Amino acid sequence: MARLNLKLLLFLLIAIVSCTLITYIFNCGHPASSHPSFIQRLEEPSLRESRGKFYEELDCSINGMYHISCRKEGREVFIPFSFLEKYYEVYGKLAKSKGHEQFEWSHSYSKVFKPTTPYNASGMFMYFSNYNVEVRDRVKCVSATEGVPVSTQWEASGYYYPVQVAQYGLSHYSKNLSEPPPKRKILEDGNMLTAKWQVPKGAYIKRKYDSAKLTRVLEFHSRDGPGISLRLKQGTDLVLSFDLRFLSANGSLTFFLEDRDRSQIFPVSFTCSSVLVEAHNSSGNYSTIYGMGDCQNWKKFTRDLHIDLVKGHVLSGRGKKLSRTKLRIHHLLLKGNGQLDNLTLASSNHMDMFYSSADWLVRHQDSSGGWPIGVKRKIASGRADLDPGWYSAMGQGQAMSLLMRAFYRSGKPHYLESALKGMQPFSKSSTEGGVRAYFMNQYPWYEEYPTVPPSFVLNGFIYSLIGLYDVVSLAPLNQVGDAQLLFDQGMHSLKKLLPLFDTGSGSVYDLRHFTLGLAPNIARWDYHSTHINQLLLLSTIDSDPILTNVAERWISYMSGKRAAHN
Ligand SMILES: *[C@@H]1O[C@H](CO)[C@@H](O)[C@H](O)[C@H]1NC(C)=O
Ligand SMILES: *[C@@H]1O[C@H](CO)[C@@H](O)[C@H](O)[C@H]1NC(C)=O
Ligand SMILES: *[C@@H]1O[C@H](CO)[C@@H](O)[C@H](O)[C@H]1NC(C)=O
Ligand SMILES: *[C@@H]1O[C@H](CO)[C@@H](O)[C@H](O)[C@H]1NC(C)=O
Ligand SMILES: *[C@@H]1O[C@H](CO)[C@@H](O)[C@H](O)[C@H]1NC(C)=O
Ligand SMILES: *[C@@H]1O[C@H](CO)[C@@H](O)[C@H](O)[C@H]1NC(C)=O
Description:
Residues 365-556 form the D-glucuronyl C5-epimerase C-terminal domain. Helices cover 29% and strands 23% of the residues. It is α+β, with helices and mostly antiparallel strands. It folds into four domains: 1-43, no CATH class; 46-106, no CATH class; 184-347, Sandwich (Jelly Rolls); 357-557, Alpha/alpha barrel (Glycosyltransferase).
């Protein structure tokens, strides 16, 4: 939501929609009945004009601590919104409504998604179809070797964050279910002779049978020439997938993207190197480079070239303003000696991206069933820090949600096995490298951040419960293992502890005020609405009224309601 520009310190005589706020500060004490007449006066321009000067300057003393400049009109006092906005952390903007300008005030900026159907473990994951994980600023790029995003949230050089990898996969799974089928075009599959490759003198291409892959592939050798190219006529779809391997060490595949406005061309290259992402601009030749790692073996790549280009732009300081609709692929270029198959252009490829995440999780799970997080996590300035290698119950849970969907869709048992192994840290204490803590030695809790003493983060705990529920729902009955028990114990703890997260006007993110003796960590509105969305989801699979009662009360806080005081 666009905030009112602070420079608009316009004493706009903004109708402070609720006189309560004035009452708070000035004790101006208008009886409730005067409220309508106050509104009426504002709507009568003649009244203002007849008075000539319709307001006076007024000094406002804020809690006796400092002064700001206000306005007085009759007995009414007007306080600048730019002040109220910061003082109360509320939101407002000028907007047009039915042809009239009005001021729109809101207490929070976040949204609640009320579920219309019961939660389905093989369906969309919450409202993740609205997520664009790879676009986020804290995602450095999508790695070409791993096919998953690289985070810079807690370490600028970049690292793989299992929570983010799982969210990337779950958002693409959800988009696969929410969006219409993609447009798809195969450009080269080793069979068609329609792809018009331009082969310079000395270079060659041939289509041949690969006896290991049992399919026909395109073999190419550029020798020392400028490379073998393929011009694309339309090229407005920017999601590419291809199977590729190189027989020489220094091959590359480059896509030339054209900005249709400025008719500039931006190459995005994939090379046989360990480079994560680099942007170069030497002698005015700009290029973005991704390393595919070791190129000797067949590997499938699925790339969103818009994302790939924008991440290079961000790296080189050009910013991320590059609209997807303004780009098209002009041509592509093969260099070196290698083989190519299944070169496909599509408007999206959510399932490939989903399986990239699932496969990453399978590859990177350790022998304790965990997905270790390789960066230090500071929770409360020096206290309860987590050293690299920690597990997150949220990471474990979201990985389980993703892997169970991969098992459901593909039927491949290794996804199920990985999800089941992912439960192991739930039975191990945080003090012993697991994620399990107890509240007052009594209620088990699965820790998003397994600190000692525990932090009891609410949203991460609920994500871990959803992961357990997905295992219970989709695993064959005789293989569910501890999932049901862990889920039931967790739900019991949630219902017991939920009231501790209620501040009477919002929710707290964790219980550090109890375990670390710090000030409460109030949840900002998007976390508050996440809490609500999660409770509403759980209420579709557990009818205990505490879930809906708390959710409804917390929803009312978002429009300014507070619990009554004594
Ligand atoms: C759950 O979602 C899947 C995938 O969208 C769908 O095929 C299935 O019918 C859904 N099940 C129920 C009970 O709605
Ligand atoms: C979703 O996946 C199915 C199966 O792979 C595919 O047929 C469908 O086109 C996909 N839809 C989208 C929007 O990705
Ligand atoms: C590359 O550098 C040249 C000047 O050396 C500049 O004009 C051009 O805009 C740069 N290109 C990009 C894509 O940053
Ligand atoms: C820049 O591109 C031009 C045209 O493709 C080429 O002739 C020149 O050698 C390139 N310069 C560098 C430094 O790569
Ligand atoms: C690849 O390396 C070989 C040997 O080092 C060299 O002759 C050739 O020019 C290189 N090819 C490309 C496309 O860079
Ligand atoms: C190309 O795709 C087909 C169909 O999915 C697959 O059988 C074949 O192995 C793929 N080619 C390569 C080289 O992986």
